[in-house]
TrEMBL record:
<dbReference type="GO" id="GO:0005506">
    <property type="term" value="F:iron ion binding"/>
</dbReference>
<dbReference type="GO" id="GO:0031418">
    <property type="term" value="F:L-ascorbic acid binding"/>
</dbReference>
<protein>
    <recommendedName>
        <fullName>Fe2OG dioxygenase domain-containing protein</fullName>
    </recommendedName>
</protein>
<dbReference type="InterPro" id="IPR044862">
    <property type="entry name" value="Pro_4_hyd_alph_FE2OG_OXY"/>
</dbReference>
<keyword id="KW-0408">Iron</keyword>
<feature type="domain" description="Fe2OG dioxygenase">
    <location>
        <begin position="103"/>
        <end position="212"/>
    </location>
</feature>
<dbReference type="InterPro" id="IPR005123">
    <property type="entry name" value="Oxoglu/Fe-dep_dioxygenase_dom"/>
</dbReference>
<dbReference type="InterPro" id="IPR006620">
    <property type="entry name" value="Pro_4_hyd_alph"/>
</dbReference>
<keyword id="KW-0223">Dioxygenase</keyword>
<dbReference type="GO" id="GO:0005783">
    <property type="term" value="C:endoplasmic reticulum"/>
</dbReference>
<keyword id="KW-0560">Oxidoreductase</keyword>
<dbReference type="Pfam" id="PF13640">
    <property type="entry name" value="2OG-FeII_Oxy_3"/>
</dbReference>
<dbReference type="InterPro" id="IPR045054">
    <property type="entry name" value="P4HA-like"/>
</dbReference>
<keyword id="KW-0479">Metal-binding</keyword>
<dbReference type="GO" id="GO:0004656">
    <property type="term" value="F:procollagen-proline 4-dioxygenase activity"/>
</dbReference>
Length: 228
């Protein structure tokens, strides 16, 4: 049985002044793996901008890659698109709690209609595979993930961590920060997660993967496939 956590049941673990806006609170949902809800991380204007600037450019993600199936629609922002002042302000807020360097991959925006989902997977690169270790060399390990909910979802569409029985309900403007690696840097199998099928309504999210390493400035190959 999954446990549904909400803000009232959880503990406030950090309360930092963002350089630009109101305080950003991280509410711990799980200690192992480290999962935090960040209420009201995005303003309505930021949610609207991310949806409106992406909605005509989405491509279907009906593909299976490395065993992961995503049936929604997605877009990887081009690096220039990340330069928009609204997106830059979102990054500025992220920088108050993660080390957001140029090595991070470009932001993704994903839309799920009813019945659409992302199957269970890890966001980390598997260091035991040739492909994974190559990507770690190129981009650095994906130590953590920031997933932002751009709208409410009428029913379904939770982000679930099945190994630890945590389900996060999409709430417009909230973000979830979770660590794909343990504090010692090893990959964390407990970070297995999935986007549950949307039952009613539409789910829009934006995702920023936080890679560990500084990217060489001439590497433009940051755009990947739709799969995580
Ligand atoms: O849709 C979700 O809630 C999860 C998506 C996800 O984990 C991913 O895109 O890597
Ligand atoms: Fe993921």
């Amino acid at each position: 049985m999954m446990m549904m956590l909400n803000n009232e049941e959880s503990e406030i673990v950090k309360d930092e002044k963002s350089p630009c806006e109101k305080p950003i609170k991280l509410i711990e949902l799980s200690e192992k793996p480290r999962v935090y809800r960040i209420p009201n991380f995005l303003s309505d204007e930021e949610c609207t901008h991310l949806i409106e600037s992406s909605k005509n450019k989405l491509r279907p993600c009906n593909e299976i890659s490395s065993g992961v199936h995503r049936s929604g629609w997605g877009l990887f922002m081009k690096e220039g698109e990340e330069d928009h002042p609204i997106t830059q302000n979102v990054f500025k807020k992220m920088k108050s709690f993660v080390n957001l360097t140029d090595s991070c991959e470009v932001m993704q925006v994903i839309r799920y209609n009813p019945g659409e989902e992302t199957s269970s997977h890890f966001d980390y690169f598997n260091p035991l595979t040739t492909n994974g270790s190559m990507k770690i060399g190129l981009y650095g390990q994906r130590v953590c993930t920031i997933l932002m909910y751009l709208c409410d979802v009428e029913e379904g569409g939770e982000t679930s961590f099945p190994e630890v029985g945590v389900k996060v309900k999409p709430i417009k403007g909230d973000a979830v920060l979770f660590y794909n690696c343990k504090p010692n840097g090893d990959v964390d199998p407990l970070s297995l997660h999935q986007g549950d099928p949307v039952i009613k309504g539409t789910k829009w999210i934006a995702i920023k993967l936080i890679n560990q390493k500084q990217q060489p400035s001439n590497n433009n190959n940051k755009e990947g496939s739709c799969a995580p």
